[in-house]
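G.,

No rush on this.
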Amino acid sequence: MNAASASPSGIPPELDPRPWLALPTPDARAVAAALATEEPDETTFVTLARAEPAHWLEVLAQRAQALTRRQFGRTIQLYAPLYLSNYCSGGCAYCGFAADRSQVRHRLEPGEIDRELAALKRLGFEQVLLLTGERTPHADFVYLREGVRAAARLFHEVTVEAFPMAADEYRALAEAGCTGVTIYQETYDPEAYERFHRWGPKRDYAARLEAPSRALAGGVASVGLGALLGLADPLADALALFRHVRALQQRFWRAAFSVSFPRLRPEAGGFQAPYPVSDRWLAQLIFTFRICLPETTLVLSTREAPAFRDGLAGVGVNRMSAGSRTTVGGYDGHAEDEGQFAVSDGRDVTAFCAMLRGRGLDPVFKNWDAAYRSVLPPSGGVPA
């Protein structure tokens, strides 16, 4: 993928969703054919995402559940996000951490990081996601790397969601114990991207778009992608995201991938989504991703309400956060800031696990698939 070879619209041709957005509204025959195909492509994706929900939503849900169980059994991987810092150099119009927000700014110092990690460990977590704002002197690469080292001493899987980095920085993170990088393009629409990223390094569309490739080239084992649904045309962003995942899978065939579905939520600045996404369509989108990417991990966070999360657990989604805090720290009881966005599912870990078990699902705190990949030889074959 080469952002430098972008189409006139500004998006690389291999990600451009526009040729498929002009397809006619699918009829019953087209939807049935899409469900029957063994090689889902862009036409399949758009057909299923635009199928009339009154007639097809339950069918899509059943297919998504069957594929989820075939690939992942009844397990739901659990993880916890840990915000290390809310300092940020970005001007994202939609984010509570933006540099012009009147947030109480704070970063966790080494002792505080250790206490937060210990609190998460006591809750049973083995997968932790470390987050910061865009790169600042308060939370730079060295600070993040030390946070990764601290987490890697306690946790089986340490993922980072921070700022785009160079390949050598990603390599250093991997050597420190980072097993994955999550980075959302936010929107694949270059004009919307420029409009909502008002200043700062995040304004560089191409640099962010290439970050997953740099992470994988730097030796990070897994990458999580997503679009912030509601910033631009949701179907266009979803299709570009699908194409992005497929392009990376073809190039980095040994890597693991996940897709998240963050939907714009209320934040400190009161930003309203230009393209609101309904519960019904978000569910249909998740089913579509599961059908078209049957082996890819699909993630749903506590941004979403309990009833919605309960209904999607194991029906497309196979990885979820629980008991989350979006404040800096927050697990050890010392958070002072407002948080990046509102948490809609406030259940603690015990209550969430009880819900999963009540639905016949198994909450899993350790990602055994990642553990298996860690012992694969360079060829990708089975170890002798």
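When you get to it, here's the other one too:
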Amino acid sequence: MQDAGKGECRPVKIIAVDCFGYDLKYAHGEYVMSGSRAATTEVGTLVRLRTDEGLEGWGEITPLGNRYLPTHWAEVRAALHTLAGVLIGLDPTNISVVRRAMDHALLGGGYAKSAIDVACWDLLGKAAGLPISALLGGVLQEDFPLYEAVPLRSPAEMAAFVVERQEAGIHRFQLKVGNDPHDDAARTRAVVDVAERESLIVADSNGGWNLRAAQIALREMAGLPVFIEQPCRSTADCIFAMRHSELPLVLDESILTSEDVFHAKHAAGAVSINIKISRVGGLTEAARMRDLMQELDMMVSVEDAWGGDIVTAAVSHLAASTRPENFQNASFMNDWTDGHVAGYSPRSVGGRGSAPTGPGLGIDVSAQGLDPIFTIDSKDAG
């Protein structure tokens, strides 16, 4: 990653950490994944870091239910409360020091740490007078393609969803599969039948198939113009499942570290990885993994599990600074939810997104209407 270059970062100190809560509703009714995992409203948590220079940095973490990734909103808030005290007095623009302090204070807690990490990047950009995308190497894509997930429903309903969203300019779709493999193949064929020529289709099991079910589904999907995403829970089972399939593999939930990226490429033969910023602990590690994937000539997808404007802004900066030839797609979660704490910004246009150009995240977050959870300042930390 490049240095900020222009603009000088004056040392600043964190004087207070505020935690807020809010609820985010899914824009299309019910979001359904494999294994009867469904969401209509999720509990979000926002972090605000305040500095002695009057700057504010924002981060967000919104887990998707209780059975998707190994985290929970109450666990996140408990971890944030533990971490908040060690942040007081630190320079948030020295992100390495902040991350070391968090790791010393708490083993694990990566989802909570991710919100703090993003808030530090927001403050670094504001202190330097630069957008985060500039700090991540510079904008390589003024705009980039977005995908939308297709909730697991009947084949006809999923096909109709795709037709409707194509009319809105979306041409990249992640189909939720991972239940009965025969039914999942029928769902995929139904969507392929209505997909426009430029549309990209990914059949995403979210690790919902066991090895045998994955083999059946892959056999029935053979020859379809689709990617297969995370067919089984572990990378090892994905390798076995894909052994006799020529469909391109995308990995997601089983990839947590840079070491996992190497394994995905050289052992699993994956062509792409979905980087969820909160799953890997924040923008710092997400950017490191993104850079490695580019060097390995893999395709990069950038997203998060759930969220609103803050998550979307973080995603946009990582996406904008990714090489176009290695970029598959991103998701703007604020199109999927009503988490509009920054006036629905950034906003997609015709199925494409772009990164804000203002300093830091480049959005103006309002705490109005949010539920205060706690505030930790120097008095509490001392």
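The CA atoms of residues 144 and 352 lie 5 Å apart. The two ends are 35 Å apart (CA to CA).

Enjoy the weekend,
O.
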